[in-house]
Amino acid sequence: MAAAEAVKVLGAYGSPFSRRVELALRLKGVPYEYLEQDLANKSELLLEHNPTHKKVPVLVHDGKPVVESLVILEYVEDTWKGGHPLLPGDPHGRAQARFWAKFIDDKCNSAVWMSCWSRGDTQKMFMEQSKENLKLLEAELKGKKFFGGDAIGLVDVAANFLALWAGILQEVNEVSVIDEEKHPELWKWSRDFLSSDIVKGCLPDREVMLDYFRSKKEAILLTKAPVY
Ligand SMILES: N[C@@H](CCC(=O)N[C@@H](CS)C(=O)NCC(=O)O)C(=O)O
């Protein structure tokens, strides 16, 4: 790859969003340089490349930034067409995959996060929302190994939070949102997803994340909003 085409990822160790981008690039076999960002003290590079949201991830390709993880996944798919496909070939399949990835972002991740990080009636409400939304994911997975079918696709990449982070947050907060009995499909999916070598290569260490969330528990409970 020519120097001008160098690919950089601005990310954060514990961010499921920047881990999505790394996973997509690794599935495609695209080499990249990873630049860890301190989110408490944002770099000029991050502010310059993502002035709107000031968040990771940012993918910089050919000197040009692309932001928002789901947008970046599509960019990766469009740019490196060969190799592992992230989206199906037919327009309907592609539309469906985009729908589920957005559903996971809008309806599942924040409900699961808030089910873990709230208490009392608020927690009850988010648990109810999680239950309804996870039920839909269960149905979508039925009869398939991955959301993408036999192989990991864009929806699986987008669901990385549910596979790793959700379990950690449940353990830290001693709540059960996703469990084997209620969500057998998701449970099996999560096991298969996490046992893929390529996925393992771009996830944070579970113990490190457990310690991190334990140490931040009181502070996160006070924020009462998704902060991941
Ligand atoms: N919708 C964004 C979310 C990105 C996001 O929330 N990133 C967090 C890290 S996990 C961040 O950069 N937070 C810094 C901040 O909010 O100041 C995406 O999908 O890329």
UniProtKB/TrEMBL annotation:
GO molecular function: glutathione transferase activity
All copies of domain GST C-terminal, residue ranges: 90-219
Organism per entry: Iris pallida
Protein name (database record): glutathione transferase
PANTHER family recorded: GLUTATHIONE S-TRANSFERASE U8, GLUTATHIONE S-TRANSFERASE, GST, SUPERFAMILY, GST DOMAIN CONTAINING
Keyword Transferase (UniProt): yes
InterPro entries the UniProt entry points to: Glutathione-S-Trfase_C-like, Glutathione-S-Trfase_C_sf, Glutathione_S-Trfase, Glutathione_S-Trfase_N, GST_C, GST_C_Tau, Omega/Tau-like, Thioredoxin-like_sf
Gene3D superfamilies: 1.20.1050.10, Glutaredoxin
Catalysis performed (reactions): RX + glutathione = an S-substituted glutathione + a halide anion + H(+)
Gene Ontology biological process terms in this record: glutathione metabolic process
EC numbers, comma separated: 2.5.1.18
Coiled-coil zones: none
Domain GST N-terminal: 5-84
PROSITE patterns: GST_CTER, GST_NTER
CDD domains from the UniProt entry: GST_C_Tau, GST_N_Tau
UniProtKB keywords: Transferase
SUPFAM superfamilies: GST C-terminal domain-like, Thioredoxin-like
GO cellular component: cytoplasm
